[in-house]
Amino acid sequence: MEFLSLISPLFVALVLGGTLIGIIFGAIPGMTATMAVAVCLPLTYSLGLENGLALLLGLYVGGISGGLVPAILLGIPGTPSSITTTFDGHPMAQNGEGEKALRIGITASFVGGLVSLFILYLFAPALANFAIKFSYVEKFLIILFALTVMAALSSDMLMGIFSGFLGIFISLIGIYDISDGGNGEMRLVPESLAYWLDGGFSLLPVLIGLFGLAAILEQAEIGVPKGQTRDEVKIGGKSSFSFGIFKGQIVNLLRSSGIGTFVGILPGVGGSAASILAYSNAKTFSKHPEKFGKGEPSGIVASEAGNNGLTGGALVPLLSLGIPGDSTTALLIGAFTLQGIQVGPLFIGNNPDTWNAMIFAMLIANIGMFIMMYVAIRYFAMVVTIPKHILFPVILMMCVIGAYTINYGIMFDVWTLLIFGIFGWLAVKIGIEVAPFIIGFILGPAAEVYFVKSLESFGDVSIFFTKSWIAMLLWVLIVASVAGSIFLARNKKKLSEGA
Amino acid sequence: MGSLTKVTIDFETSHLIFPTLIAIVLGLLGLAIVIRRRHEIAGAGTFWRDTFARMDKLRFFGALGLTLIYFSAMVPVGSIWPNTGLGFLICSIPYVLLTGLLFMHDRPFRDVLPLVIVALVAPTLVWWLFTDLFFLTLP
Question: Which regions form coiled coils (chain B) (predicted)?
Answer without folding.
Answer: none
